Amino acid sequence: MKIDLTDTTAGDINKALVRGRRAVGTPAVGMVLTLVIVTDEENAYDALKAAGDASREHPSRTLVVIKRVSRTARDRTSSRLDAEVRVGAEAGTGETVVLRTYGEVSDHADSVVLPLLLPDAPVVVWWPVNSPADPARDPLGALAQRRVTDTYTAEQPVRELTARADAYTPGDTDLSWTRITPWRSMLAAALDQVDGTVRAVEVRGEESNPSCELLAMWLADRLDVPVRRALSPGPGLTAVRMETTGGPIVLDRADGTLATLAIEGQPARAVALKRRDTAELIAEELRRLDPDDTYASALRYGVERLETGEAEGTATEAAGAAGEPESTPAAKPAARKATARKTAARKANAE
Predict the structure, then answer these.
(1) Which of 33, 176, 223, 231 qualifies as a cystine partner to 151, CB 3.0-4.6 A?
(2) Residue 55 half-sphere exposure, CB side, CA atoms within 13 Å?
(3) Alpha carbon 92 to chain centroid distance?
(4) In Å, what is the CA distance from 24 to each residue of 35, 82, 92, 161, 222?
(5) Largest distance between two CA atoms of the chain
(6) Do residues 264 and 248 lie in contact, with contact meaning Cβ atoms separated by under 8 Å?
(7) Quick one: how many helices (H) and strands (E) in the chain?
(8) Cα 2 to Cα 312: distance, rounded to the nearest angstrom
(9) Three-class SS of residue 39?
(10) Taking all residues of the chain, what is their mean pLDDT, rounded to a whole number?
């Protein structure tokens, strides 16, 4: 069921929600959290679709805030709130309210959202694009226990990581970090299978890809060894090579779907490591609402402390060369020379 409201108020929206629940025969509220999505008109459809898919695992009230740009002098001086209330099949397993704000109301979106939050339920705010410089200080972000951004959508993703580290507040997280969860799990499991210590690491991936940088920073922070960030054509994150006293460990994913794990003294094996869509990423983030201390520690390690170099061959080729370590160019201090340049082959959901 869908109810359209023009020039409305938060009180009228709440009444429409109650009316919609009764109409579809679900008067009881069984939702576990409120998900607030702050986006623009262009990206609202994709964000709503991802939230709807994630609601199968996390039934929630989804509030979509779209701040409309005032195009005329009359629009700039007038304030208006339009709403679209979706209940039942229109909203997945929860409820959805699309809020379009005009004029001065856009500057006080938190006052509109606050009366619509589920009582005694956690609040998560997600910015699919155009996230604020300091999410915790944003009026909407201040309402939430968890604040989700996506560094990949920034104009300069790698530089954005530095800004995220400076403004980090417990509860902040990034979908660029969520994208590397399977990589972190696989690498940790691989290290459990070898005796020896790690001496050096190389992470290969697309240029200006924040997930690659975050994985490199996590490895450097946790292993306390030099980590070299090398470039590859992609897609996204393509390979990690760890030099250990017991031989190299190589995790190589050239096609974005299937990876090869090679450990010294063991046969190479194929492992599923597909690139996940936004719905899976949001569903993972909604599973935990406590601060992610591991993300905070990796973020604060700093991109500038990584070693950098150009791409040379593939990690799989190096692993096949009788386990001999790959030649590594001299380390360079990490002034990334191409943060302002974006690779043309970057994908919309890059890892």
Answers:
(1) 176
(2) 27
(3) 22
(4) 22, 23, 13, 45, 51
(5) 73
(6) yes
(7) 11, 15
(8) 55
(9) strand
(10) 83
Tokens encoding 277? 């869509």
Give the whole-angstrom CA distance, residue 58 versus residue 289: 12
Q: Which stretches of the chain are DSSP H helices?
A: 10-24, 41-54, 73-77, 109-113, 157-167, 175-178, 181-191, 210-223, 278-285, 293-301, 315-320
Q: Which domains does the chain have, with CATH numbers?
A: 2-149 (3.40.50), 181-274+302-320 (no CATH)
Q: What is the pLDDT of residues 42-69, one digit of tens each?
A: 999 999 999 988 888 888 899 999 988 7
List the 2-5 sheet strands across, edge first: 2-5, 80-87, 95-102, 60-67, 33-39, 123-126, 146-149, 172-174
- What is the reported pLDDT for 265? 85
Which residues neighbour 41 within 8 Å (Cβ) at sequence distance 6 or greater?
A: 66, 68
Residue 333 per-residue DSSP state: -
The whole-number pLDDT of residue 322 equals 33
Give the model's confidence band at 70: pLDDT under 50 very low, under 70 low, under 90 confident, else very high.
low
Given a contact cutoff of 8 angstroms between Cβ atoms, the answer to whether 147 and 125 are in contact is yes
| 276, 175 Cβ separation under 8 angstroms | no
- Token pair 């507040």 is found at 169
Peptide bond into 115 cis (omega under 30): no
Q: What is the DSSP string of 66-110?
A: EEPPP-SHHHHH--EEEEEEEEGGGGTTSEEEEEEEEGGGGGGHH
- Angle at CA of residue 138, ends 135 and 139, nearest 5°: 140
Q: Which two tokens stand for residue 258?
A: 């299937």
Q: What is the mean pLDDT of residues 235-249?
A: 92
Residue showing tokens 């760890």: 242
Three-class SS of residue 267? coil
Structure tokens at 77: 């001086």
